[in-house]
Amino acid sequence: MVKLQKPEFVYMGGALRPWSEAMLHVGCEALTRGLNVFEGIKGYWQQDGRFGIVRLRHHYERLQRSARLLHIPFEHSFDEYTQAIYDLMSTLLKPDRDMWARTTLFVTEGHWGENTVADLVITAYHQDKKVPEPIDLGVSTWQRSSDISLPARIKTSTNYQVARLAKIEGRRQGFQDMILINQWGRVAEATGSCVLMVRNGVVYTPPASEGALESITVDIVESLAHSLGIEFIRRPIDRTELLIADELALCGTLAEVTLVRSIEGFPLAKEPSILKTLQDRYFRAVRGIEPHPYVELSYVPLKT
Ligand code: PMP
Questions:
Q1: Any ligand 1 atom below 6 A from CB of 253
Q2: Residues 108, 136 contacting (CB under 8 angstroms)
Q3: What pTM was computed for the model?
Q4: Which has the closest alpha carbon to 134: 47, 221, 38, 260?
Q5: Is residue 299 pLDDT above 70, yes or no?
Q6: Which strand (E) or helix (H) includes residue 220?
C-alpha cells in the first residue's frame, strides 16, 4: 500500500511549520478547484416570509452520484445533509438577502484513492435579490473535457480548471462569461451554467452527452416551458448556430436564467421574448409568487 509520509516540517507562508499546522483554508481556490465533489444550492425569500431552498433532494442525489463516480465516501443521509444546511443558513440569513451555499465533500485523507476520507464542508454566501443583468458572451478557445478525461457529469471542482482559464480569456476580451466547445466542436456549456438557445420559437439545449452538467435548473426550465406551451428540445448545438441564434440565455442554480445580450461581439438576432418569459416564470416560481410543482422548496426553519 502506498503511504503518504508525514515529515516533521513543511515550508509554508515563508517559514518552516510543523506538518499538522500546514493548513489551507476551505475557501481558497487551491481547494475549491481541487479534489472534491460539490453542489451549489440556492435559497430564496418567499412571498409569504419563509425561506425556501430549490430542489434540495436533487442536489443531494447528484452529490451522491458525483461522489460515487470519484470514489469518495459520502455517508450523510438526506436528513443529515439538510439539517447541516439549515443550521448554517438559519444562522447566517439576513432578511434582505437571498443565499447561495456550496456544499463540498472535500477529500481530507487518503492517497491515490486508497483509504479515502471525506468531510462535508458547507459555506454560504449572501446574494442580491435582483434579476441578473443581461451579459455579453464569448466562445472560448479552451475545450470542455470529454467523458473519458474529466467527465462533465461529475460535479467536481477539478473540472473548473478549464472554466477558470476560459473566464480569464473572456475577461481580457470584455465578455462576462464564455461558452466551452466540446471535443466534437459543438456547444457543451458555459463556465458554470448550461446554455439555452431559441431558434424559430423553439428552445434548445445540449444534452449531457455533449459535455454539459446534468443541470437541475435546465430540468426546471424545461418543465416551466412545457407548462407555458413552449417547445423545449435537447439536442446538439453547432457553434455557428450560437452566432445566428434568435435568443440565448445561461441557466443554472447561480446563473438562474441570465439573458445574453451579444455573442462574440454580435447582438442577438431578436430581443429576448421567449427566454424573458421563462426568466419571469422562473423567478415567480422560486419566490413562491406563482408556485410550480416542479420547483420543490425546502423551508429553512427560521430563528425568531
Ligand atoms: N454547468 C456547470 C459547469 C455548472 O457549474 C452548473 C452549476 N451547477 C451548471 C451547468 C448548472 O447546473 P445546475 O442547474 O444544477 O445548477
A1: yes
A2: no
A3: 0.96
A4: 260
A5: yes
A6: helix 216-227
